[in-house]
């Protein structure tokens, strides 16, 4: 009975993860394929509240807010995924180096981790984005360079634990090189951490991207990013046009929560200790 219950929990986890991932993928692809017709200025339809024709209302230029929100979410998801993937790659590389290349490398990488953790992400992200001239390139590089430290510590601890495993010790006794052990023994065991780390870092990346863009240091104002939409809507909230900020902001929070849910479910699937929770 207990094994049956655990199996059902695992099945529910897989179903929830699949459905949520499919929804996020649909937003990402849908935003790229969605027609730009709703983005065209139409002064006859400006400042319209939510209705059947315009579920999210229209803005001061008559643009459909539903279209702008979906396209903005698509851009934010794309930026978040690229930045999170780059950050995870950095974390995996540094974590392996810290655990396998001796005490000097471990000390240097640990010092870098402490240094980056001591500075608020948003402050460093703004500085990096400003130095690189802003835009998508500046935001992606800034996000990638500021979100790796915590995961690096996790990867380092995981690799150090793997090094004491019997199959790794057997390879060392057989004279296998560090490169062979890293590629054939360590990296395959780190794939679950890579995937979980990607989904858990994404919520931080997308929220920080929106914050930097909101402050004017991120994506171009010509792109319908969520941060830009929220920044532009601030000047109209006092006139009662609440829908300009409410629906894009709520959509952003739901997407972030969805990625957080997928990451947590994936961690449950890959962690035997949490499999039956």
Protein topology:
Elements: H1 2-33, H2 65-100, H3 102-118, H4 121-131, H5 135-146, H6 149-163, H7 166-173, H8 178-214, H9 226-233, H10 243-270
Helix pairs in contact: 1-2, 1-10, 2-3, 2-5, 2-6, 2-8, 2-10, 3-6, 4-5, 5-8, 6-8, 7-8, 8-9, 8-10, 9-10
* Main β sheet profile: none
Would you tell me the overall average pLDDT?
82
> Which strand-content bin applies to the residues?
under 5%
How many helices? The count is: 10
Order of helices and strands: HHHHHHHHHH
Instruction: Specify the structural class.
Output: mainly alpha
Based on CA inertia axes, which overall geometry fits? elongated
Radius of gyration over C-alpha positions, nearest whole angstrom: 22 Å
Q: What is the terminal-to-terminal distance?
A: 15 Å
Runs with pLDDT <50, length 5+?
Answer: 1-5, 272-277
Description:
The chain has 277 residues and is mainly α. The protein has helices at 2-33, 65-100, 102-118, 121-131, 135-146, 149-163, 166-173, 178-214, 226-233, 243-270. Mean pLDDT is 82; it is low at 1-5 and 272-277.
What distinguishing features does this structure have?
mainly alpha, 74% helix, 0% strand, single chain, 277 residues, disordered N terminus
């Amino acid at each position: 009975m207990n094994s049956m219950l655990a199996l059902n929990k695992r099945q529910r986890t897989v179903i929830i993860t699949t459905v949520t991932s499919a929804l996020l993928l649909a937003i990402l692809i849908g935003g790229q394929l969605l027609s730009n017709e709703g983005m065209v200025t139409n002064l006859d339809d400006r400042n319209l509240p939510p209705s059947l024709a315009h579920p999210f209302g229209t803005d001061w230029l008559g643009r459909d807010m539903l279209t702008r929100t979906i396209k903005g979410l698509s851009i934010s998801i794309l930026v978040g995924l690229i930045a999170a993937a780059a950050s995870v790659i950095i974390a995996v590389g540094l974590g392996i180096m810290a655990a396998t290349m001796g005490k000097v490398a471990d000390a240097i990488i640990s010092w870098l981790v402490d240094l980056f953790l001591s500075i608020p992400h948003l402050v460093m992200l703004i500085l990096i984005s400003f130095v690189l001239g802003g835009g998508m390139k500046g935001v992606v590089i800034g996000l990638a360079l500021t979100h790796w430290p915590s995961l690096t510590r996790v990867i380092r601890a995981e690799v150090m634990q793997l090094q004491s495993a019997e199959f790794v010790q057997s390879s060392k006794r057989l004279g296998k090189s560090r490169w062979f052990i890293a590629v054939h023994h360590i990296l395959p065991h780190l794939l679950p951490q890579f995937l979980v780390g990607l989904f858990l870092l994404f919520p931080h990346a997308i929220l920080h991207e929106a914050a930097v863009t909101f402050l004017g240091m991120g994506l171009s104002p010509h792109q319908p990013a969520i941060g830009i939409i929220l920044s532009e809507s601030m000047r109209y909230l006092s006139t009662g046009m609440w829908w300009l900020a409410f629906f894009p902001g709520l959509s952003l929070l739901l997407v972030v929560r969805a990625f957080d849910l997928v990451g947590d479910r994936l961690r449950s699937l890959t962690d035997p200790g949490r499999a039956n929770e």
